[in-house]
Amino acid sequence: MKRLFALFLIVCLPVLVSCSGGSGSDRSDGRPDDTAIKYVGRQRLEGQLKDPGSLEIISERVERPGRNGGEAGYWCKYRAKNGFGGYVVDTYYVE
Fold it and tell me: Nearest Cα to 94, choosing from 45, 55, 28?
């Protein structure tokens, strides 16, 4: 279900944002821009955390091409609460 939602966001978010006058997919080839990829990456990370409200992004980037053969990947270094209530710093990557 989460993958279907993420796929929906990747495909539809740029279209919805550009229709509303925002900065959606400004690429001439129709691929999603970095902002859309970062948004979906953050949503997927939040879905895996025990306390999504504690998420603090330290740094992030979009990698083109992705590490596993995909068109693009999302990498970030973040700080968040773990299951015991303590804060941890970790990295996250998704394609």
Answer: 45
**Which helix (H) or strand (E) segment is 15 a member of?**
helix 2-19
Angle between helices 2-19 and 34-48 (to 10 degrees): 150
What is residue 28's DSSP assignment? T
Model pTM score? 0.68
pLDDT in tens, the chain (95 residues): 555 555 555 655 554 445 444 445 556 777 889 999 999 999 999 999 999 999 999 999 999 999 999 999 999 999 999 999 999 999 999 99
